[in-house]
Amino acid sequence: MINLATFREALHGAPIVPVLTVTKVEYAAPLANALLSGGLKSAEVTLRTPVALEVIAEMKDAAPDLVVGAGTICSEGDVDAALKAGADFLVSPGTGPELLKSLAYHDGVILPGVATASEAMAMFEQGYGVLKFFPAEASGGANFLKSLAGPLPHIDFMPTGGVKPHNALDYLTLPNVIAAGGTWIASPEEMDAGDWAGIEAKVREAAELGKGI
Which of 99, 108, 200, 205 is the most core-located residue (most Cβ within 10 A)? Predict the structure, then answer.
């Protein structure tokens, strides 16, 4: 796993983190290359397919400079498997007591999922200063995070869930948002079609969102 400084460096100027559901291992290398070529430096691979762990390893092999994390971390088994696959960071949709115990054994970048102020405060008390806000739009969106910036300025967020090109800047311009996760950049259908050029074009558009922020 990487440290938080390295993670923040990868997000500097490229704060969109593609959230990827990849169904075939052979998509890993062209996908990783499309992300780097398009100007994004990080990605989250969800553990929602049987090949997700292999995909993480293959993406790291194909593009060592790409910061590749594992998403949908829900159990101790997920934590162990993702780290063995070489995941640079871990992201959970929420954080129950048992998962929290498992995460506590590991250093590195871990973004526990939260959806309320109380959950954010609880995770900060456990030592996590950067959190996943999920599902972002359904939980109050950018206005909710803006309202937290005053009382909780010491906590940063990566909103995911409903973040799209038309509203990404609403999040990215907030002082307590370091990145935003987006599923629109590479859909399973585009990967099945082998449309790597089309994916790279969307990556370039996403990378433009972070310039000048």
Answer: 200
